[in-house]
């Protein structure tokens, strides 16, 4: 795990917010249900009390977004072809994201669908675009780590261990914003290229996902059990 100071300039951060703002919509989670006959909301995304932010996908054709993706890939020794469409997320006062993992649960009924193109989500980079007046820390409870949101700074981590196995220690949370607003940029990198070398395009989502399905998040009973078992 790496804390990166000055990953973005303030001008880049504000430009990414400007591009994303008109498309913001309530964040969704995809429940990787254990049941093969899970309903549509469970597999394509639904709102959740555990994730109350708003988000928007941003095209990597925009210079500031493209630069951010390229930097994340350089730091991870991967190429932009491994990138999912980047996502901007906004938190207003009281909004949060409860503890979760970014990797896909191999035991989940939708695992094959979610990993059909690109494989597992192996790297996350979270860059702060606007810092709240108070609150909004990013915390890793299993690692006893926390990061204050500072404009331009970023946190990068691998979601899998050296053997490629999903790492429950990457469980993390976005603490509630208490005052002001928080904007952040999510960049997720896959184990394999998701498309051509351009990577991370702003059109169709990874694996043919629709408009809402860029916001994959593990909110899964099986994943929760695995996390608890590791403690």
H/E series, N to C?
EHEHEHEEHEEEEEEEEH
Strand content: 25-35%
Give the full name of the CATH homologous superfamily: q2cbj1_9rhob like domain
Largest sheet: number of strands, sense, barrel closure:
7 strands, antiparallel
The best one-word shape is globular
Helix content range of the residues, please?
Answer: 10-25%
Strand order of the largest sheet: 1-10-6-13-4-3-2
Q: What would the CATH topology be?
A: Jelly Rolls
CATH C-level class = Mainly Beta
In the CATH hierarchy, what is the architecture at level 2?
A: Sandwich
Main structural class: alpha+beta
How many individual domains?
Answer: 1
InterPro entries: Oxoglu/Fe-dep_dioxygenase_dom, P4HA-like, Pro_4_hyd_alph, Pro_4_hyd_alph_FE2OG_OXY
Catalytic activity: L-prolyl-[collagen] + 2-oxoglutarate + O2 = trans-4-hydroxy-L-prolyl-[collagen] + succinate + CO2
Domain Fe2OG dioxygenase: 82-191
Keywords: Dioxygenase, Iron, Metal-binding, Oxidoreductase
Describe, in short, the structure shown:
By secondary structure, this protein is of the alpha+beta class.
Description:
It is a single chain. The protein is α+β, with helices and mostly antiparallel strands. It has a single domain (2-229), classed as Jelly Rolls (Sandwich), CATH 2.60.120. It is built from five helices and 13 strands. It has helices spanning 10-20, 40-44, 63-76, 111-114, 221-229; strands at 2-4, 25-26, 54-58, 86-91, 97-100, 121-130, 134-135, 138-140, 145-147, 154-158, 172-174, 177-179, 182-190. A seven-stranded antiparallel β-sheet has the order 1-10-6-13-4-3-2. A four-stranded antiparallel β-sheet has the order 5-11-8-9, with no helix packed on it. The radius of gyration is 16 Å and the shape is globular. Residues 82-191 form the Fe2OG dioxygenase domain. Keywords: Dioxygenase, Iron, Metal-binding, Oxidoreductase. It is a single-pass type II membrane protein.
């Amino acid at each position: 795990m790496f804390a990166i100071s000055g990953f973005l300039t303030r001008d880049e951060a504000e430009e990414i917010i400007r591009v994303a703002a008109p498309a913001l919509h309530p964040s969704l989670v995809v429940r990787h249900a254990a049941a093969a006959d899970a309903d549509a909301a469970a597999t394509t995304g639904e709102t959740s009390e555990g994730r109350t932010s708003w988000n928007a996908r941003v095209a990597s054709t925009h210079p500031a977004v493209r630069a951010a993706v390229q930097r994340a890939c350089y730091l991870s020794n991967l190429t932009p072809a491994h990138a999912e469409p980047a996502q901007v997320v906004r938190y207003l006062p009281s909004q949060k994201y409860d503890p979760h993992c970014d990797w896909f649960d191999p035991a989940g009924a939708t695992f094959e669908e979610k990993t059909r193109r690109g494989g597992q989500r192996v790297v996350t980079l979270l860059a702060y675009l606007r810092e709240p007046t108070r609150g909004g820390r990013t915390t890793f409870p299993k690692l006893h780590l926390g990061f204050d949101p500072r404009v331009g700074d970023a946190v990068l981590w691998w979601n899998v261990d050296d053997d490629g196995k999903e790492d429950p220690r990457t469980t993390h949370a976005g603490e509630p914003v208490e005052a002001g607003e928080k904007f952040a940029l999510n960049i997720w990198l896959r184990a394999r290229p998701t498309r051509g070398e351009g990577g991370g395009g702003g059109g169709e989502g990874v694996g043919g996902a629709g408009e809402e399905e860029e916001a994959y998040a593990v909110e899964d009973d099986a994943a929760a059990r695995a996390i608890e078992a590791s403690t």
